[in-house]
Amino acid sequence: MLIRTTVNGRDCEVDVWPGASLLALLRDELGLSGSKNACEQGECGSCSAWLDGELVCACLVPAVQADGAAVRTVESLGDGERLHAVQDAFLAAGAVQCGFCTPGMVVAAVDLLERDPAPTDETIREALAGNLCRCTGYQKILDAVHLAAAEPA
Amino acid sequence: MSTTATPTVGGIGTSARRVDGIPKVTGAFAYGSDLDAENSLWGFTLRSPHASARIRAIDLAAARRGPGVAAVLIADDLPARRTFGLEFCDQPVLADGVVRYTGEPVAVVAAGTLEEARQAAAAISVDYEPLEPVTDMEKALRPDAPRVHDFGNVLRHVHIVHGDLETAEADVWVEGYYETATQDQAALGPEAGLAVPASDGGVDLYVATQWLHVDRQQIAPCLGLPEERVRITLAGVGGAFGSREDVHMQIHASLLALHTGRPVRMSYGREESFHGHVHRHPSRTWIRYGATRDGHLVACDVRLLLDGGAYASSSPAVIVNASTLAAGPYEVPNVRVEGTVVYTNTPPCGAMRGFGAPQVCFAYESAMDALAAELGMDPLELRLRNALHTGSVLPTGQVVTGSAPVREVIERLAAMPLPPEEPASGRDPISYPGGAGNVGRGESLRRGIGYAVGYKNIAYSEGFDDAAEATVTVRPGPDGPVASIRTAAVEYGQGLYTVLAQIVRSELGVEEVVVEPATTESGSAGSTSASRQTTMSGGAVLGACAEIKQELGKRPLEEPISRTFTYHHRPTTELDENGQGEPHVAFAFAAERAVVEVDAELGLVRVLQVAAVQDAGRVLNPQGATGQVEGGTAMGLGLAVMEELQLEDGNIRNASFTDYLIPTILDAPPIVTELVEVPEPGAPLGVKGVGEMATVVATSAVVAALRDATGRMLNRAPATPEDLVGIRLPATTAGPAPVPDVPGQRAIPEYAGLGLGQQELMKARER
Amino acid sequence: MEALLARSLEEALALRAAHPEAVPVAGGTDLMVAVNFGRARPPALLDLSRVQELRSWRRENGAVFVGAGMTFARIGRELGEFRPLVEAARSVGSPQIRSRATIGGNVGTASPAGDAIPVLAAYGAAVVVGSTRGERREAWDAFFIGPKRTTLAPDELVLGVEWQAPDGPGSFAKVGTRNAMVIAIAGLCLQLDLRARTVRLALGSVAPTVVRAPDAEAFAADVVPWDDPERGLPEEAAAEFGRLAALAARPIDDVRGSAAYRRHAVEVLARRALRWTLADRSAGAC
Asked: Which chain B residues are closer than 8 Å to A88 by Cβ?
């Protein structure tokens, strides 16, 4: 089935199997492998992306629903030269170990800060509750979000 | 797949930024599951639905006809060796007439898309004759139990006798029975990789693994190829924690690639992943401590049983580790340990962060708390009174020659401030135990505090020379000298490459350091496990730098200078017939305190804080080291309250992240870490590994805190809400499992004439 | 597999009638799990995500209608006056799930663990169903007939749910083994109606469908001090309420929890929920 969608600002036309997820479309058809596939059931958040501005698990979005919609992924962050403040904060705070959860975590953190520029620990925890990390114990991820929030816009 | 040089100043002792950080935050970092090649096929595995069965017939006709299908292979199609394994080659590449666990690979398919491969696998018709499985570790010891393998269900029994337990005089004895469940590593990155057939008839494999060379040693014979024609390049690894130490898709993908002449990519889904890697051994431990009235340990008697599942994996090493550490980080003059690992028809168990140490820590620390209560003594005071130190003699007769600041670790822990008391009412509902479920407004909250002290060996044991090679090259560059490191050592998140770069920066004064892709072109670096890699590869890099420095001392840098160094740790020995010897290289100690809040009526837990002190030798990267402590703590916390792979008749009931629960950010507490630096003599830079010790102690500390909060005995990990409210009673036992009659301390397959273990072969070859 | 994209309610109903074998999908948070795992291969998907008529809600006097396409994120943001519904919405999955999972999906999937369903049951809600044959309304307890089974005919779609806004405070709670992202081991919703002087208690995850606890409700209606908003409830009365609630549960042992624990959790939660709602009444909270 032919899907017309805009991904990270670029118009794309892709032919996908109707049962495919948006995640499969991104990774297998568009070569955008930044969004990850750790659980395929929306439990881990490693596939987090934006669909028409809303934070979603791309693995649970039927690809056909991206038709006519705008999709944004981790690859849209930063401007090629400089990292997004959240990305830089993750590195500065030591919030990256294996990195598999990192793209989804960064996307969810960016989403949070776009809505709430000065979150508390509780708000951050609730916002990132759908992003699993197995390496860090989350401590430094919290640090990173606070650090990014403290950056001047 | 190469990593980027990070142009920051960052030598030893600084929290230098990760050398692979930028690609990881931008999503550009290529994990095994991200790899693809032109003209590639997808590989998929058909797995057994039975825990034990004979295969009467396999009909591939429909599968082979499937759209897009390029190959369907079963055991009969295997070109050469049909088995592999980390210790013994007892694990079939594809089930050969019989399946021994639910999930065992029976066939592999290559097709144009993953969906086509899946459909084809579903079209394979296997005629099974189910057999009676043995799925309980104690039942496996019975003489009438079904045999997983011909030579019986005992894989290895370790017998340690030190001093004289019979005549030991104690004023007080405590006795306890403790269980730990099967834990899953649950690395987010799945088993994945890409196999590309080469023009020389060999294969180029890009895979997420923990040890390139031991993989190659197992893969090549199964492909009928000499090792030189199996070339492995490390793909990005999305976490491992032991689950990438055993071969997963490597042989399958290579077989399919060679058979079809096309690249084959394989990437397990989460449900398959649960079946496709080894797990932490579930344990049953019967332990007795005897002590004097004033709290000096006199005796320790341990009967330990681990369930190794259907194949050996690294179980023979796990049981030795666990058994030798089973008396705890304490001086005990009279010790007996009988440790057994058995086969059952369950998914194989093997390496997982801690490697047997967390299981015995749960038993000995729970028993020590019971002893403290019996003596009316402060639990930390009891530990201090008996703590190991440099010069102590261990139950194996090994003398602790390295640093052992156990007292200091405990004292630093005791001094860490407790989190402030919080009012019971008026909080955001999400801050109560139960979190987002809105189950409480402060009812029946009980606070509890618990401690655990533990230890673990570093590097491989029992005479294994797990050496590590590294090559350092320095060359003139446009903006000054540039250094590069070439190592086969695996980085899977703990920051190894970053500390190696830091070492080069400090030793050579070169700021720009590149870490090249890890391949089998280099010599073996050994496994990234056993908290060994900073020591071993750090030692290799240090050695290479020392030689380069000598060269640089003689003349200015005009041409590249390259030096390769292989670092060996000091030799260790096997255990004699009484379990005596010098089996371990070095030890690291850790202690944690957990403060929990329990909703006593519902049995729901909120961990308020974990304070962690770790004996780190020398800290090369403070942020990296605390990151390991924090992550390791979260993993141990998982086993304490929520993680359990539930098996029923050998079948995994919860093979998904919906029902195998790992801690979310709402479950993870603030973790406060202190690192004690007493350099390890003889270790490069005095370092000790920090990867595992937090996991070793965290489970015990949290359960101890839950006991304190609820007053319940809690002799099982995880302690679930059912345990905490008392609906499920403590685990009971009919008594210690009988000690099997074995020919000696070695793994039984060896006595059964099944050849030397894989790792024995590695020892023999590298000498 | 085919994908049928509906762009209006009329088109959706027509497609549904013409393709009864097509599985309706809005947020996809249930269906896509089964598809990704290879467990479901429906011959066709009927995409409802673009049907604007389903993505709204209204309140006319006391009659509330919430369209099937309302996501839990929007419910949390926009239906703040219905506190138990918002509490249930907040407990669903993660922000990523809440932005997609819909109340229509909860109802259509009809899992006894569906988070919104106890709230609908405590509200005495009706499910509004549409087809090319017209609309019908069915009381929630007639609509849900078993685990993942409803009276929805192959040519029908869930249009939404409707209820009379209750006059009083209510509360939702659900128990899981960790602090986020759990499927309920046990859940409930309690709703007071101060004018009618009734207490409604609905239990989730402890029976083949969501069930009400009529004995507990009748008992509570008797003991709640309706005339005195400042008074709470004596210990024994709250405890008896909890016991009666637990008796209405018919839970099973499964991989998430035991029947015994589920009954126990219902008893505790029911007792607490009644206290909270009475406290909220005193505080003037609704």
From this structure: 25
